[in-house]
């Protein structure tokens, strides 16, 4: 007397169906992992390079205590939420 009286073809069919279901679940997991990794890569590149942020100069007319007027250029930030790096603050005399 056999414990599970079914032909071998039935068991092979059940194994094939289970394999197909598991392959589908694995594919969904791999796709989700790829999408999340792409998002993390974009975020890391943004923090390291400044993303699509850019600086621009904002002219500002000021007066010193002696009454001399001069123009100072302030650096302003525009673009995405990532910070900019290596922006020198220059003041040109004259």
Features:
2 strands, 94 residues, 1 helix, rod-shaped, two-stranded antiparallel ribbon, 21% strand, alpha+beta, single chain, 45% helix
Low-confidence runs: none
What is the oligomer described by this structure?
single chain
What share of the residues does DSSP label as strand, in percent? 15-25%
- Tally the helices: what do you get? 1
Order of helices and strands: HEE
Question: How many runs of DSSP E, i.e. beta strands?
Answer: 2
Q: Going across the major beta sheet, what is the strand order?
A: 1-2
Shape: rod-shaped
Radius of gyration: 32 Å
The major sheet is characterized as: 2 strands, antiparallel
Write the layout of secondary structure elements.
Layout: H1 8-49, E1 54-63, E2 69-78
Antiparallel strand pairs: 1-2
Structure description:
By secondary structure, the chain is an alpha+beta fold. The protein is 45% helix and 21% strand. It is built from 1 helix and 2 strands. A two-stranded antiparallel sheet has the order 1-2. Strand 1 (54-63) and strand 2 (69-78) form a beta hairpin. The chain is rod-shaped. The protein starts with 7 loop residues before the first helix and ends in a 16-residue tail after the last strand. The model has no long low-confidence stretch (mean pLDDT 83).
């Amino acid at each position: 007397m056999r414990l599970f009286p079914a032909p071998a073809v039935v068991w092979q069919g059940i194994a094939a169906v289970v394999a197909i279901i598991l392959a589908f679940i694995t594919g969904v997991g791999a796709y989700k992992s790829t999408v999340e990794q792409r998002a993390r890569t974009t975020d890391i590149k943004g923090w390291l390079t400044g993303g699509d942020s850019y600086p621009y100069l904002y002219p500002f007319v000021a007066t010193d205590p002696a009454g001399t007027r001069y123009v100072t250029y302030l650096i302003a930030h525009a673009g995405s939420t990532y910070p900019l790096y290596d922006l020198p603050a220059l003041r040109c005399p004259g």
